[in-house]
């Protein structure tokens, strides 16, 4: 299936420029609402330099670390740089030997600007040190790093005082100050070093979290220190203390104690900033469940006596519509280098720059190994190669992440898994300690789509679906509305039809990771290294789409179509008014009940019978659109083919005297006694015997779906088996055209297909067809008639399911054709299904393709596809002399042809004619290779059209000869097993054929 990279590029542009307003997150036409960043951006520290605002935040175990964000209006932010690339290179930072730095790394940075230089101070909890980084260009570096003596200074804040002295305020519970040198590179010997607020939590209440998260500002000659506290029984609370001297004494009060409209958790922790117009804002944040800790911009004024007064936490008061430049879709094109971070560790080996430049929205989980990822190995793709074995995604290296966001967000990938190895897992995850992912698992040479849930101690596979193609599409959807905090997982075989997989992940914000959920792209090995996958794109969306593919089988009936039989004690089924048309009622309603279920009792009762055609084997839930008079008239006996199956009771708990849908196979609403019906495909008779009078049935709906939602009526027509044709919408003049044929909505197993394609012969010419994998064999083709090709293929082992890629067909635009449109269509599709060889007709499809104008662009799509298919054929081929194996010389020749084609593909100066010639040459080499397969020898040695004793005599005549014999050219026809000698094995083979 061609991967449409242009679509994700468009989405990436949309996300970069700004999305349409969504819920309360976006502007209402006047002012931007909080949260202005509905994503994990905690411990914010903000400054203004001229007309630009800069903000740092915490990303702990993610690298590069300490993101620098920029804004012109305080509400729309983009990531412009990071402070460091990697900070240390020990086992903990590289997820080695069972160690990690989850929830550690750099915390709560302090960002300041003074005399033309930017300063970032932070503590690294895993290293146990505090650093100050400095630069004159915050967006482009370069950075200088300084380590402060004394270890970790918790939640510090820098202040450059008017007299040239430099201080750092820090601590938890009690707030301290320590003086730095004037250049802020070290602790000042003999400088100030003291506790300045003994119990900073006191204004907010007692107990709970001690005051921390200091932000110090000097305004109009006074020192203001903002902190967060979380008193027992209370919420996160913003405190402020002020003094005339930096070392006090300080007086304090509550600055803000408020949740938001969408979340009762307190908005607190942060500092303040002034606009060029003189307005003030607090930059704080709020704990918001599994999405993480999200920033709030709160308008602020000053009281008459000089205290800060925070306003409405729900409204920023800033006229703007919000964009999300801090996340982005990505088509993984190589970029100019835009991250100018400090690199602490010697750049060699795994830390050496590999020349690939990712977008700034991405961060690696822990330190990356730069030897095993690339944007240049396959241009336009992110390649992740396994460099070591791991036991789960939590200890796998080179997992690439970016933030999830609220209120809803989804991440979609297209991934090529053709080079995975046994034991590999690759895909996309919702990453936190309690994670979930949808991915591809390699078991031996077999692939499957899996959904996995896990945590730091265990994992489980919730679903496993066989996969027979190399490109698959995967999606994670996150619902953060109203703290729902649920993630669901989906897969698609064509990028258009999506099926859910596995079960819902209940996301939870855990302290060991101390970070909101991330989208995570991964590839890890559990057995052997060297396998790789290619991500074609990552596509973000702010809407949940769910599944658009329902493979459930359905039987739907209007109740009044029944055959009615029998009367018991004056009670029988008869027509009555239904919800829409007519219903069937068991009456009269006198309190009668027929409780027996033995064959004799049922035979004496009143029965509704329906002839049904079950589309597929399965377990069917029975739904009734039913109305009960009361609890003494709300049960019914159910059977199939006049054999009793179950009695359902308690329907009144759902109906309540009105026509309501009730799943009588389940237990919702107090229903009991029911069961699902296990049915075989084909014709059956569905039976209902009246049990309690007063029950009316309007509609009957049997479904294999486990959904608890009421059935949709009229029911959606089930998808008919179809052969779907996919091809690009446009093609260049003279170019080859890759067409894919998929078998869709296959309820039954398909073992063979006979497909006729028609096409505009004045626009296109047919080139070749090949199975999508080694299990699909093209057994015959007829292309003699211009504008038509007939393909006959066999599926070894059979295929079924929602959509399975079967055939890759190559066409070519005829010479001289341009600026026109042609059509390729499936005009006949006959499928051989089931082991019995039943034949069915499949629905058809077509595609109109525009041929563009003549230009110099060379289309290598068909060549790439041909190389991929040929490589798969080469990799699967076994060298040997047995039937089904290949001579070594044939395999060597195919490899030469593949490498020759690759050379043309990789040649940036190759012409379209050279590319097309390479496609034709490789196709010919593939056909030659297939023809070289070792076939079973014919025991008709004397070629008289039958197996007889004469054939055995000829073999016996050459018994004992081998490839070195002088007359081997004549004798080798008696070598039945192609082992280069004639022995008892050959005699036995001929004898066996004679006996048959």
TrEMBL record:
What is the protein named? Beta-xylosidase
UniProt KW keywords = Glycosidase, Hydrolase
Marked site: Important for catalytic activity, responsible for pKa modulation of the active site Glu and correct orientation of both the proton donor and substrate? 155
Family designation: Belongs to the glycosyl hydrolase 43 family.
Show the PROSITE patterns listed in the entry: DOCKERIN (PS51766), EF_HAND_1 (PS00018)
Q: Where are the catalytic residues?
A: 43, 212
Q: Does Hydrolase appear among the keywords?
A: yes
Q: Which organism is it from?
A: Paenibacillus methanolicus
Q: What InterPro entries does this protein's entry cite?
A: CBM2/CBM3_carb-bd_dom_sf (IPR008965), ConA-like_dom_sf (IPR013320), Dockerin_1_rpt (IPR002105), Dockerin_dom (IPR016134), Dockerin_dom_sf (IPR036439), EF_Hand_1_Ca_BS (IPR018247), Galactose-bd-like_sf (IPR008979), GH43_C2 (IPR041542)
Q: Name one GO molecular function term.
A: carbohydrate binding
Q: A Pfam family this protein belongs to?
A: Dockerin_1
Q: Name one GO biological process term.
A: polysaccharide catabolic process
Q: State the source organism's domain of life.
A: Bacteria
Specify the Dockerin domain's residue ranges.
934-996
Q: Which PANTHER family match?
A: BETA-XYLOSIDASE (PTHR42812), HYDROLASE, PUTATIVE (AFU_ORTHOLOGUE AFUA_2G00930)-RELATED (PTHR42812:SF15)
């Amino acid at each position: 299936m061609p991967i449409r990279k242009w679509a994700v590029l468009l989405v990436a542009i949309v996300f970069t420029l700004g999305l349409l307003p969504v819920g309360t997150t976006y502007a209402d036409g006047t002012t931007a609402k909080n949260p202005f960043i509905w994503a994990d951006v905690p411990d914010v520290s903000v400054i203004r330099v001229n007309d630009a605002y800069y903000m740092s935040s915490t990303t702990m175990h993610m690298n590069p670390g300490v993101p620098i964000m920029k804004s012109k209006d305080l509400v729309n932010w983009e990531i412009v740089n990071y402070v460091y690339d990697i900070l240390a290179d020990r086992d903990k930072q590289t997820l080695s030997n069972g160690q990690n730095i989850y929830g550690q790394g750099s915390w709560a940075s302090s960002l300041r600007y003074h005399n033309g230089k930017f300063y970032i101070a932070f503590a690294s909890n895993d290293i146990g040190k505090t650093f100050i980084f400095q630069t004159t260009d915050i967006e482009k570096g370069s950075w200088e790093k300084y380590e402060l003596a004394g270890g970790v200074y918790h939640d510090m804040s820098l202040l450059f005082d008017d007299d040239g002295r430099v201080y750092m305020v820090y601590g938890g519970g009690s707030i301290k100050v320590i003086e730095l040198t004037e250049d802020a590179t070290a602790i000042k010997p003999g400088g100030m070093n003291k506790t300045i607020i003994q119990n900073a939590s006191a204004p907010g209440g007692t107990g709970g979290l001690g005051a921390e998260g200091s932000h110090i500002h000097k305004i109009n000659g006074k020192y203001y220190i903002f902190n967060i506290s979380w008193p027992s029984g209370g919420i996160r609370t913003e405190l402020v203390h002020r003094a005339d001297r930096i070392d006090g004494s300080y007086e304090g009060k509550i600055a803000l104690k408020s949740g938001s409209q969408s979340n009762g958790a307190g908005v607190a922790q942060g500092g303040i900033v002034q606009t060029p117009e003189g307005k003030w804002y607090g930059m704080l944040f709020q704990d918001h469940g599994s999405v993480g800790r999200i920033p709030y911009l709160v308008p602020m004024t000053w009281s008459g006596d000089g205290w800060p007064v925070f306003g409405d936490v729900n409204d920023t008061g800033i006229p703007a519509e919000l964009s999300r430049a801090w996340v982005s879709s990505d088509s993984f094109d190589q970029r100019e280098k835009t991250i100018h971070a400090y690199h602490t560790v010697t750049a060699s080996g795994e830390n050496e720059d590999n020349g690939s430049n990712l977008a700034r929205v991405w961060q690696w989980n822990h330190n990356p190994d730069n030897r095993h990822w690339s944007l240049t190995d396959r241009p336009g793709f992110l390649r992740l190669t396994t460099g070591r074995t791991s036991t789960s995604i939590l200890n796998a290296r080179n997992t690439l992440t970016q933030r999830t966001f609220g209120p809803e967000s989804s991440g979609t990938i297209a991934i090529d898994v053709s080079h995975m190895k046994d034991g590999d897992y690759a895909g996309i995850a919702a990453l936190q300690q309690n994670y979930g992912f949808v991915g591809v698992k390699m078991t031996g040479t077999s692939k499957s789509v899996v959904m996995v849930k896990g945590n730091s101690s265990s994992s489980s596979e919730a679903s496993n679906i066989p996969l027979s193609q190399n490109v698959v599409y995967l999606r994670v959807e996150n619902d953060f509305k109203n703290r729902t905090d649920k993630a669901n997982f989906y897969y698609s075989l064509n990028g258009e039809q999506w099926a859910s997989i596995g079960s819902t992940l209940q996301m939870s914000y855990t302290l060991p990771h101390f970070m909101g959920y991330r989208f995570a792209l991964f590839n890890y090995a559990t057995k052997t290294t060297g396998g790789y996958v290619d991500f074609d794109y990552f596509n973000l969306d702010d809407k949940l789409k769910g599944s658009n593919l329902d493979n459930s089988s359905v039987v739907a009936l209007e109740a009044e179509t029944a055959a009615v039989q029998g009367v018991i004690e004056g009670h029988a089924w008869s027509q009555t008014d239904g919800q829409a048309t007519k219903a069937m009622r068991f009456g009269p309603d006198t309190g009668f009940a027929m409780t027996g279920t033995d064959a004799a009792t049922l035979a004496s009762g009143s029965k509704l019978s329906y002839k049904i055609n079950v589309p597929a084997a399965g377990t069917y839930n029975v739904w009734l659109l039913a109305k009960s008079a009361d609890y003494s008239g709300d049960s019914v006996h159910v059977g199939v083919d006049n054999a009793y199956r179950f009695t359902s009771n308690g329907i009144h708990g759902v109906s309540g005297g009105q026509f309501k849908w009730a799943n009588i196979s389940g237990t919702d609403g107090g229903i009991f006694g029911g069961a699902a019906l296990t049915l075989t495909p084909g014709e059956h008779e569905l039976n209902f015997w009246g049990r309690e009078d007063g029950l009316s049935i309007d509609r009957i709906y049997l479904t294999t779906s486990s959904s608890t939602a009421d059935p949709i009526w009229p029911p959606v027509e089930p998808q008919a088996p179809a052969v779907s044709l996919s091809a690009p919408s446009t093609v260049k003049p003279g170019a080859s055209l890759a067409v894919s044929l998929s078998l869709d909505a296959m309820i039954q197993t398909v073992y063979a297909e006979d497909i006729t394609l028609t096409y505009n012969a004045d626009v296109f010419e047919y080139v070749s067809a090949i199975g999508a994998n080694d299990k699909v064999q093209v057994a015959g083709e007829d292309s003699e008639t211009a504008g038509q090709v007939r393909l006959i293929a066999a599926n070894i082992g059979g295929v079924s399911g929602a959509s399975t890629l079967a055939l890759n067909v190559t066409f070519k635009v005829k010479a001289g054709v341009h600026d026109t449109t042609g059509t390729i269509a499936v005009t006949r599709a006959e499928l051989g299904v089931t082991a019995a060889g039943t034949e069915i007709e499949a629905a058809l499809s077509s595609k109109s393709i525009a041929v563009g104008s003549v230009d110099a662009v060379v289309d290598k799509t068909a060549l790439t596809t041909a190389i991929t298919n040929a490589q798969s054929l080469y990799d699967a081929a076994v060298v040997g002399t047995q039937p089904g194996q290949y001579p070594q010389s044939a395999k060597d020749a195919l490899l030469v042809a593949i490498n020759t084609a690759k050379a043309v593909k990789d040649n940036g100066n190759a012409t379209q004619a050279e590319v097309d010639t390479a496609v034709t040459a490789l196709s010919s080499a593939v056909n030659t290779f297939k023809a070289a397969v070792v076939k079973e020898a014919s025991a008709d040695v004397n070629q008289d059209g039958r197996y007889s004793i004469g054939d055995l005599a000829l073999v016996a005549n050459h018994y004992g000869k081998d490839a070195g014999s002088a007359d081997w050219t004549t004798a080798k026809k008696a070598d039945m097993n192609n082992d280069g000698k004639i022995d008892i094995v050959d005699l036995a083979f001929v004898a066996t054929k004679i006996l048959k």
